[in-house]
Amino acid sequence: MQRAMLRINDIPTQVITEGRWVEEGLAEYGKKDIVLVITGNPGVAEFYEGFIKTIKSRLPTEVPVWVVGNAGHVQPPNNLAITMPSNSTWNEHYSLMAQLEHKKDFIKKYIPEDARLHLIGHSAGSWMILNMLKDDIIAKKITKCYLLFPTIEHLATTTNGWIFTKIISQIAFFVIFVAWTFQFLPHFLQIFFISIITLLRGIPSKYNNAVLQLLNPDVLERIIKMAKEEMEIIKERDDDIISKYADKLWFYYGNCDGWTPVKYYEDLKSKHPDLNAELCKHGYHHSFVLQYDKEMGKLVADVINDNIL
What we know:
By secondary structure, the chain is α/β, with parallel strands linked by helices. It is built from 13 helices and 8 strands.
């Protein structure tokens, strides 16, 4: 597994790979497929390490699996002389629409012309992928899209959307203030408190560092503000783009998801009866990377293998 901060759209961005690194190009012989994961929000690539590791283990050896984080959702390490644009440049660098352009820039820069691109979108990453299909250059590169727990419609009216809008967003300033004070604790105390929180929430300790990254106040502000934009922007499902590229799409909905209720799956299948969409039968949660990364990795890898020539 390889990790680095790459500058994309002028933003140092966390990228993690299993297999060939993004700047190495395709293997000289064998399959020309590349798997790229577009994260949800929070877009900390480290949360997806177990997921991409499992996928990679089940694909042909020459097929790499990459995950690109969201712009500004991970601060560069202090030992690197890298500066981040301030949050005052929100529209250009950190907004929902800027995140979309950020992913398009990554694909255009790092995906070779002759590659067969498999895009995995999680949550808001699914919305981004549907919008990427409107770019003809990117659409031609894509072999298949795998949209997991896709938040692609009426986000604010879901159970979790209501909780976020009515409660969390109202106390956002206080939450960010607490995160700011947390930075003054010694590192060992930060890890200690995070270990307690993750233990109580049933989150494996391997994610403690990723959680610590989330608690940077600048990062947390970007995550919350982006979520607010998702509530405002993600409303009507784009049935036109779904119809146009139905053969490139595979949907996977949760059966106990506060962000994508079963009704959204049923409505999608009613409108597009021939669409390849499945409803989870295992009770996997929306944030599957925290507890079901191996199970989902196996499931998605098997579908990807069906689409590798």
